[in-house]
Automatic annotation (TrEMBL):
Known function: Hydrolyzes ribosome-free peptidyl-tRNAs (with 1 or more amino acids incorporated), which drop off the ribosome during protein synthesis, or as a result of ribosome stalling.
Organism field: Saccharomonospora viridis
Lineage: Bacteria, Bacillati, Actinomycetota, Actinomycetes, Pseudonocardiales
Active site: 31
Family: Belongs to the PTH family.
Protein name per Swiss-Prot or TrEMBL: Peptidyl-tRNA hydrolase
Record GO biological process: protein quality control for misfolded or incompletely synthesized proteins; rescue of stalled ribosome
Length: 199
């Protein structure tokens, strides 16, 4: 059961997990937008990612006045849950203190939407996280990548790099998504939704 949809108190850490696939082959893929947003957030906290025994790359710091743990699973997307759950246990962060940043096929490119709980929408990374945490009650920041053109298989589409046109706006859109994460953890879900769902 979800109550209040608010992150834990200001003195408690928040875990920000960005989803993607590891390695240079996947760096610019649409599926890796979670990693790209986490890189921007790491710049904002002035930290660097380091290997951690949880099976993720970890960066700790302060963001929007809160202590945060940035988590990039070193596993492939469909096994993201193990490292995220392991990091959450290590840092003693409950599911309601977890924010997952991921790509979303069902949103227009560059659109940012926030929610708490709900289904996985066929996203393998979310499915793995929900299974490993034993709950769907965690926050999601969804970055729209649009549906594939024509009859292209969605599985192929998400593993392709952003198009030339999309790349022109990519840095601005990554900034927007990072701003949404900051607003969520500093002002709560309702304020963040009011601000970013109108764009």
């Amino acid at each position: 059961m979800t109550v209040g949809h608010e992150l834990p108190g200001a003195g408690e850490q928040v875990l920000l997990a960005g989803l993607g696939n590891p390695g240079p082959r996947y760096e610019g893929n649409r599926h890796n937008i979670g990693f790209l947003v986490l890189d921007e957030l790491a710049d904002r906290v002035g930290g660097r990612f380091k290997a951690h025994k949880s099976g993720a790359e970890i960066c700790e710091g302060r963001l929007a006045g809160r202590r945060v743990v940035l988590v990039k699973p070193r596993s492939f997307m469909n096994l993201s849950g193990g490292p995220v759950a392991s990091a959450a246990r290590f840092f003693k962060i409950a599911p309601e203190g977890i924010v997952v940043i991921h790509d979303e096929l069902d949103l227009p490119y560059g659109t940012v939407r926030l929610k708490f709980g709900g289904g996985t929408g066929g996203h393998n990374g979310l499915r793995s996280i929900s299974k490993s945490l034993g709950t769907q009650d965690y926050y999601r920041v969804r970055f729209g990548i649009d549906r594939p053109p024509g009859r292209m298989n969605p599985a192929d589409y998400v593993l392709r790099d952003f198009s030339t046109t999309e790349r022109r706006e990519l840095a601005l859109n990554i900034d927007l998504c990072a701003d949404a994460v900051e607003t969520l953890i500093s002002k709560g879900l309702a304020v963040a939704q009011n601000e970013f769902h109108s764009r």
